[in-house]
Amino acid sequence: MSEHPRMQRRLGRNDAVVIGLGSMIGAGVFAAFGPAAAAAGSGAGLLVALALAVGVAWCNATSSAQLAAQYPDSGGTYVYGRERLGASWGFAAGWCFVVGKTASCAAMATTAAVYAVGQPGPFARLAAIGALAALTGVLLRGITKTARTARVLLAVTLGILAVTLLGLLIAHSGRPDPPPGPPAGAYGVLQAAGLLFFAFAGYARIATLGEEVRDPQETIPAAITRALALVVVVYTAVAAVLLVVLGPVDLAASALPLADAARGLGLEPVAVLVRVGAVVACLGALLGLLAGVSRTMLAMARRRDLPPALSRLDARHDVPALAQVCVAVAAAALVLVADLRHAIGFSSTGVLLYYAIANASAWTQSAEHRRWSRAVQGAGLVGCLALVATLPWESVLLGLLVVALGVGGRAWLRRGASA
Fold first, then answer.
1. Contact 36, 192 (CB under 8 A)
2. DSSP tag of 4
3. For residues 235 and 54, what is the distance between their CA atoms, to the nearest angstrom?
């Protein structure tokens, strides 16, 4: 590792929290509740699914925080898996992250474009590709500009969400409650939890930026846990308001639930505001996602698990420019061929497998590096595998196939090189 130039540590704790928040408050808050409600059935089932997703996310976040404090390097669980479980497990984690989060980038860009254009279609796909190109341009100018941009986007998003939720509650006051949905059973609740997990996975962005954070042993664990706690509050508030205003049946049928709730109450200006907020939130999340995937590719390229050219840093802006462009191009290709539901399911499959390896890695840490009990990591590992098993089977099958191709291809290349 010493022969590779290192990125400068420019980010403080608040910067890291903002990037984590911006990565989590994105397409999930505006798009994930509809598919999750369809799986969960009743309002109670959706809330249980949300609680399960939060529980698994918290286990994963604490494992990531504990590992990041010991290994404050770019790459996240790719690095942790190599150090704790071996090179093959590390590669599997990194590959899961790259393919899963590239799908997330496509989902974020698509959601932003659909809200901006008003409906899916060719124009929305072109707008999504334009968003990927514009944010890649920001990222190529350096991490401090990325943090400043994320701070502005997050402030606008939270302000719009607060106004929207308050307006919906006031307008709905005195109206009859919507009908309860049918109970979906344990499988439906678990599938809903797996879909909602897509919305919480942004805390990994903090760990993957470990090489650029000041005082990483303290900053990264604090930033991860604080960002997740704040996002839980936001998502719980959104879920509760949507269930009160729309109910589980209408929520399950809605692609743009917050906007539809506002229109149903005659709040057309609020619906327009929601569309603006969704675009801004998705762009903020997309900014963090693009940065996180490129840093994982950087770490993998440094260890020759990806082409070494991806490890080159731009001399002026201190960023992995080629890796950043490659992520944008791959996400743009997915925008052209995948719909939002399959992108979310595919992303969740890859990311849950990634965190399963993170929990297994944290389980092996010695007492001097341990901040949480092994029971937490065990629960996280079991939770990740259980949620993967209940995701839509097409997404799981495709995700496992892509992961197997990556891992198998690496093994074949290594065997040929050693022959």
1. yes
2. S
3. 10
Query: Cβ distance 164 to 25 under 8 Å?
Result: no
Phi and psi at 334, nearest 5°, equal -65, -35
The more confidently predicted of residues 197 and 128 is: 128
Instruction: Please identify which residue in the block is written with the tokens 């997404």.
Output: 395
Indicate the domain borders of the chain: 13-409
Provide the token pair at 101.
Answer: 């989060």
Q: Which residues contact 260 (CB under 8 A, 6 or more apart)?
A: 246, 250, 254, 271
CB 323 within 8 A of CB 297: yes
For the stretch 137-146, pLDDT in tens is 888 886 665 6
* CA 108 to each of CA 29, 146, 190, 274: distance values in angstroms, whole numbers, following the listed order: 11, 17, 23, 16
CATH of span 13-409: 1.20.1740.10
Q: Which residue stretches of 246-267 are H helix?
A: 247-252, 257-264
* Helix-strand-coil split of the chain, %, nearest 5: 80, 0, 20
Reported pTM: 0.78
> Among 185, 151, 160, which Cα is nearest to 275's?
160
Mean pLDDT of the chain: 84
What is the amino acid identity at position 350?
A: G
Q: In the chain, how many H helices and how many E strands?
A: 18, 0
For tokens 């404090």, the residue is: 69
